[in-house]
Structure formats: structure tokens, C-alpha cells
């Protein structure tokens, strides 16, 4: 039987993607990124292929215009994506190469949904937070989680998702 994400298990069947969510309060700097990276290292050392996604609630499209005094340093990915420093930790800890798509912001998702609405993807429906915006986030995560990030053509087994909840 072929499962939807394209991975094969020992029986020749595609194995389902596993997700690990790491979240924790509104306090910045408590170590959610390091914890996420460390969990990834443990999984990788046990033979799993690991990817990572960070979800930030801010309305900016990316971290490129952030004040380093307010938000900390910006990390620049190989594809030019300007993202939170945690993605740099993921890359170094897990020895992977991520893209700007591994960083989701509310602003980026608003832009994505608005572009889809302008193209007519919603067939004239009134675009709403639920289901359109939430579905767009789910579809984005499912798509990006399956992209090989370790230099092989093999899809990850596990995607660690750091979800930031701050005000």
C-alpha cells in the first residue's frame, strides 16, 4: 500500500510522516530552538531522517527587516531567506540545508492566501481564517516537511515543528 507522503517502510509501503511539535509560552530565549535541534540530533543518531520548520506569529514576511536589538540576529539561508537564528541552529545541529519555506510567519501565510485568492484558487468564495488560512498552513507544512534536506533524495521521516506563541 502506498501512503501519501512517499516514504517506504520495511514492508515496501510508504511510511507516514511523523511530526513533533515543540512550543512553550510567550517567553523568548527559553531554549525552544535548542531543544528542537537536540531532539532532532537524538532522532538522527537513531537512524531517522529529520527536517525542521519554525512557525512564528509575526506579520512580517521574513526576519530581514527586524531590529537585532528587538529580535536578535537574523540568519541567512543558502537560498537567501532571512530567518530566525533558530533555523541556523537546526542546520548546524542536524547537518541539513533548509530553505525560506522552512520558516512560516503569519505575514508570509497572509501573502500566500491573498495571492491564491487573486489567482481565483478559491473560486470566488469569501476567504476566511477558517478554513482557508488554517488549511494553507497545514498544506504548507505537509509540503515542506517532505522535502529532502540532507543532500540525499530521501524524504525525511520526522519533521520537528517549533511553534512560537508570543504576544
Fold and architecture overview:
Mean pLDDT is 90; it is low at 1-6. With 167 residues, this protein is an alpha/beta fold. Helices cover 35% and strands 17% of the residues. Strand 3 (74-76) and strand 4 (82-84) form a beta hairpin. The chain is globular, with a radius of gyration of 17 Å. InterPro entries: CTP_synthase, CTP_synthase_N, P-loop_NTPase. Residues 18-163 form the CTP synthase N-terminal domain. One of its GO terms (molecular function) is CTP synthase activity.
Question: What are the SSEs and their pairings?
Answer:
Layout: E1 18-23, H1 32-45, E2 50-56, H2 68-71, E3 74-76, E4 82-84, H3 85-94, E5 103-105, H4 106-119, H5 129-145, E6 158-163
Parallel strand pairs: 1-6, 2-5, 2-6
Antiparallel strand pairs: 3-4
Helix pairs in contact: 1-3, 4-5
Domain CTP synthase N-terminal: 18-163
Transmembrane segments: 20-43
Protein name: CTP synthase
The unreliable regions are 1-6
Beta-strand percentage?
Answer: 15-25%
Question: Strand arrangement, largest sheet?
Answer: 1-6-2-5
What structural class do you assign from the helix and strand content? alpha/beta
Query: What is the residue-averaged pLDDT?
Result: 90
What is the CA-based Rg, rounded?
17 Å
Instruction: Tell me which CATH architecture applies here.
Output: 3-Layer(aba) Sandwich
CATH topology: Rossmann fold
The count of strands amounts to: 6
Assembly context of the chains: single chain
Shape: globular
CATH class division: Alpha Beta
Q: Count the helices. How many? A: 5
Query: How would you characterize the largest beta sheet?
Result: 4 strands, parallel
Task: Give me the strand/helix succession.
Answer: EHEHEEHEHHE
First-last Cα distance = 44 Å
Percent range for helical residues? 25-40%
Count of domain modules: 1
CATH superfamily: P-loop containing nucleotide triphosphate hydrolases
GO molecular function: CTP synthase activity; identical protein binding
GO biological process, one term: CTP biosynthetic process
Domain CTP synthase N-terminal: 18-163
Pfam family, one: CTP_synth_N
Amino acid at each position: 500500500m502506498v501512503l501519501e507522503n512517499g516514504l517506504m517502510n520495511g514492508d515496501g509501503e510508504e511510511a507516514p510522516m511523523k511530526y513533533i511539535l515543540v512550543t512553550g509560552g510567550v517567553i523568548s530565549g527559553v531554549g525552544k530552538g535548542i531543544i528542537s535541534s537536540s531532539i532532532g540530533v537524538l532522532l538522527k543518531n537513531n537512524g531517522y531522517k529529520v527536517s525542521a520548520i519554525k512557525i512564528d506569529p509575526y506579520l512580517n514576511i521574513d526576519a530581514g527587516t527586524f531590529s537585532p536589538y528587538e529580535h536578535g540576529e537574523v540568519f541567512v539561508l543558502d537560498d537567501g531567506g532571512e530567518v530566525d537564528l533558530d533555523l541556523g541552529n537546526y542546520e548546524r545541529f542536524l547537518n541539513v540545508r533548509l530553505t525560506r519555506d522552512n520558516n512560516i510567519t503569519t505575514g508570509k501565510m497572509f501573502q500566500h492566501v491573498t495571492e491564491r485568492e487573486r489567482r481565483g484558487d478559491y473560486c470566488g468564495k469569501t476567504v476566511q481564517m477558517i478554513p482557508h488560512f488554517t488549511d494553507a498552513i497545514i498544506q504548507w507544512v505537509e509540503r515542506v516537511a517532505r522535502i529532502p534536506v540532507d543532500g540525499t533524495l530521501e524524504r525525511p521521516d520526522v519533521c520537528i515543528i517549533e511553534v512560537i506563541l508570543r504576544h
